[in-house]
Amino acid sequence: SQTIHQWPATLVQPVGSPLSLECTVEGTSNPNLYWYRQAAGRGLQLLFYSVGIGQISSEVPQNLSASRPQDRQFILSSKKLLLSDSGFYLCAWSVWDSNDNTIYFGEGSWLTVV
Amino acid sequence: GESVGLHLPTLSVQEGDNSIINCAYSNSASDYFIWYKQESGKGPQFIIDIRSNMDKRQGQRVTVLLNKTVKHLSLQIAATQPGDSAVYFCAENGSAGGTSYGKLTFGQGTILTVHP
């Protein structure tokens, strides 16, 4: 069965510090990968998606970037965090199949920028 | 712009009652909808999905109804249990037309509280 892992689960970082959140998927090949952000009490906002190694699409302009160095690895980064980057970050995956559109989420990473 | 939204932000029910959570969408071209359950501090969990060529789909204790005429989606939970307490999101998948990725547009969420 497929599993998704992301870490760290919680992170407290000072303003201006770098960020690296990692996500890996197991049990599937060539997945579509996503990074979502959820502000407290709000819905989910798609930040980045990737359909293959090195292929990253950004949905919203922001202080963050994403990379996909391996097929099942997705990384969310920032060179200098802002207070507004605080939130709950979710990695997700889906199969490469237009007939199966379900997106499966990881457990999330809580980021607090202080 | 296109959006997916929820009518009721909170819903409180007694254990054993049936719960109905509603969702409206504005994109008439949407062809796939998903309900997610999100417990506090966790990622959303897939509950049930439905395609636009269906108007009803049943799972274990859950039923999703789709009314394309009024662009309305609902999630019914039978015999609601305390463990059902969570935030429920509807989402529309933007991969209509056969694109190879899914871009989910989420509603704001409904908080379901089940009292024992």
Note down, in words, how this protein is organized.
The complex is a heterodimer of chains A (114) and B (116). Chain A is mainly β and 114 residues long. Chain A has no helices and 11 strands. In chain A, strands 2, 4, 5, 6, 9, 10 and 11 form a 7-stranded mixed beta sheet that branches. In chain A, strands 1-3-8-7 form a 4-stranded antiparallel beta sheet, with no helix packed on it. In chain A, a hairpin with a 5-residue loop joins β4 and β5. Chain B is an all-beta fold and 116 residues long. Chain B has strands spanning 4-5, 10-14, 19-25, 32-38, 45-51, 56-58, 62-67, 72-77, 86-93, 104-106, 110-115. In chain B, the strands form 2 sheets. In chain B, strands 2, 4, 5, 9, 10 and 11 form a 6-stranded mixed beta sheet that branches. Chain B has a 5-stranded antiparallel beta sheet with strand order 1-3-8-7-6, with no helix packed on it. In chain B, a hairpin with a 6-residue loop joins β4 (32-38) and β5 (45-51). Chain B is globular, with a radius of gyration of 14 Å. Mean pLDDT of chain B is 86; it is low at 95-100. The chains are: A mainly beta (114), B mainly beta (116). At the A-B interface, β5, β9 and β10 of A face β4 and β5 of B.
What is the oligomer described by this structure?
Answer: heterodimer
Q: Averaged pLDDT of chain A, please? A: 91
What integer value in Å does the Rg of chain B equal? 14 Å
Shape of chain A: globular
**What is the percent of helical residues of chain A?**
under 10%
Total number of beta strands of chain A: 11
Order of helices and strands of chain A: EEEEEEEEEEE
Tally the helices of chain A: what do you get? 0
Structural class of chain B: mainly beta
Largest sheet: number of strands, sense, barrel closure of chain A: 7 strands, mixed
- The counted number of beta strands of chain B is 11
